[in-house]
Amino acid sequence: MSSSFSTSPESLASSPGSTLLRVPTDNGSNKIRSLRWGILGCGRVSHDFCLAVHSAFGIRDASAPADDKTAPPVIVACASASSASSASSFASRHSIPRSYGSYSALLADPDVDVVYVGTVHRTRLRDATAVISAGKHLVLEKPFALNYEDAVAIVAKAREAGVFCMEGMWTRFFPVLRHVAENVLSDGEEGLGGIVQITSDFHFNTEDSEKYPDSPLYSFKLAGGAAMYVAPYPLHVATMLLGRTPLAISAVGRVDTGTGVDLQASVSLAYPALVPDENKKNDERPRPNVGPLASLHYGFLTESGETTSILCERGRITINGPSHCPTSVTVERKLPGRGEKETKTTNFPLPVQCGAVAEGDGETMEYFYPNSAGFAYEAAAVCRHIAAGKLEAPECPLDDTLAVMKILDEVRKQIGMDIPKEAEI
Amino acid sequence: MSSSFSTSPESLASSPGSTLLRVPTDNGSNKIRSLRWGILGCGRVSHDFCLAVHSAFGIRDASAPADDKTAPPVIVACASASSASSASSFASRHSIPRSYGSYSALLADPDVDVVYVGTVHRTRLRDATAVISAGKHLVLEKPFALNYEDAVAIVAKAREAGVFCMEGMWTRFFPVLRHVAENVLSDGEEGLGGIVQITSDFHFNTEDSEKYPDSPLYSFKLAGGAAMYVAPYPLHVATMLLGRTPLAISAVGRVDTGTGVDLQASVSLAYPALVPDENKKNDERPRPNVGPLASLHYGFLTESGETTSILCERGRITINGPSHCPTSVTVERKLPGRGEKETKTTNFPLPVQCGAVAEGDGETMEYFYPNSAGFAYEAAAVCRHIAAGKLEAPECPLDDTLAVMKILDEVRKQIGMDIPKEAEI
Question: What are the start-end ranges of the H helices in B293-395?
Fold first, then answer.
């Protein structure tokens, strides 16, 4: 089976986001072997992950020595716990050399360095523990765990074992988010001042693809519900921009009386002040008792604009929809006078378009989810960090993941949702 | 002093919103005297109100018999409690025949039918009581009162006296809002289904026009604060669309440690189900334990997009900014397939542009606030309703005003703001 690629990695260098795809050498060593990935779970998200990595970096022979400049990802194995044949079919479709009918078999493969876990939610703790115990590095697709307690256990195990560990919160690796965090907000270059309020939303309409009540999205026992499927996106944005410890968490929400899963919520968060009072001109501006606020909402029952808006003292940053996998940002800098402003939109095109990879038989593979080509940003970052000997990704630290899980528990508690416990289901 | 008008009332008939400006006859009577307005308070909001009414309907002689088709508004008197000369100057600038140096003098004028109260917040209860006691109809600019208790007292007095009474929540009279309430949402013609979630925001940046801490916006004793100045807008939208009695109110906010006024809040509301369960196909869709949610935020410290978004089961209605005085609405009807939709934007141009009225000396008067020409919608509706013998405006019922005041008290309580009491300040 042969595959063709419409875009070479080199051609990406001209796009604004391309620098994030470069995988640097490890401190002058000139014989970096490519990071070799195993994939747990052969479902939709694993499909999109593999397609994105292969589209961006090509399909290469894991045993061949890499050049001395880059250590891009290479996918060497996949496993499905339910059937060897579905793993084999997935491997063939994605040009992955090996496939296994059980997770333990893949974890025993000495040629696997890092495992991407794209399995169903229900077994997050079990799967993560197995990966860490096998001494492999770990990228655990979101949600990181079913609840805060399980998340703490996973993080503790990973830190004890000394393996790289990360929640697969791919949004944080999109160039738009890096641009906002590293350029727009960092040094006040744009003159926007401190953050006053952020909003972020993510609703999608399950009617398009999920049948009620059979879909896993609606299954309490499979850890369905909006807190598991969509809430991590707006909550990670808030955590990334405003910190890990909100002073107040306040939520209302809707729980399905038929299945017991949460369907929708509106969450308000108040954060500590970002700037110490002594830096402000206290006599000229108000001195609020708390810092910035976040207004977040998410759910299953409709489709939203999916926008993240960062309102600053003297301007506004809009991460244009779909903001969970964004390709453009608009910065409006306030000028004197109500409503007066200067506007700049910056685009960060995806590295490869959907459906860019053709199968051997000439058919084009497509992504299941919007902008999944952006998985390549995350995969490249993991390669860089592991090559550099890091155990966490600075773009998505484990303490941020724990903070999000803690808020999610509190939100579910406030809206009257029973929080699933992996040990009990 | 002569005045000229760039737009005649007749020319408005061709704009989509123009029907709202027509003032019908009173059940066949053919000698309707124009409704004669008195204005309490000669500040910015009164300036904008008078300019809008005169721009849309012209300046006419109140004693002359009106024609048999319309009874448009006519402004006959204004009063300033602080100085007779400022009232006189306001009257001269606005071609208002009479002016008074005290509110009681205006209320004693037998030629005043209805009083528009555009005074400072502090004396809402006192001013409303005086108007009602004088037997005049009442339009009380928002906020209706400093707290729920005072609002209940005003409504009780008005109902007992049998006078027309209304909060001047002009947003509700804009053609965009009427179009949404009466056409888009009423009969499912657009196939949008029930409301799932609404969002509405209103932040403006006080740095442009208000000095800290001297501005009334920041004065606790003058009933400043965001709940009084900006919160009524998003809260009225939620109340209009989702009802008067949320099941849950949940808020976080920022209070100024210097002045004690509230600066900003994020409010989540959960409402009862809009559609009875028996009308739903219970086996095919989730059955949430509560109805739609609202995510609202507002404040003084930044400028927001000021958008109202109504997410429905199969589509989305965006009241484009500035949504507290909107001139356009975008309806996106969902088509099969994630992200597929049909989009329609409808514009409702303002009746008269800002600055359309020229003073006698050739200078052009300008509005203080955005889209203030839209005050004409409210004024025309009040004329229609009073001519028809109604004591409330169906577009803005008093029970809705009470509902908003009740939520505002609860929000301020939750964010730790002391609620001002008129009797004590």
Answer: 375-387
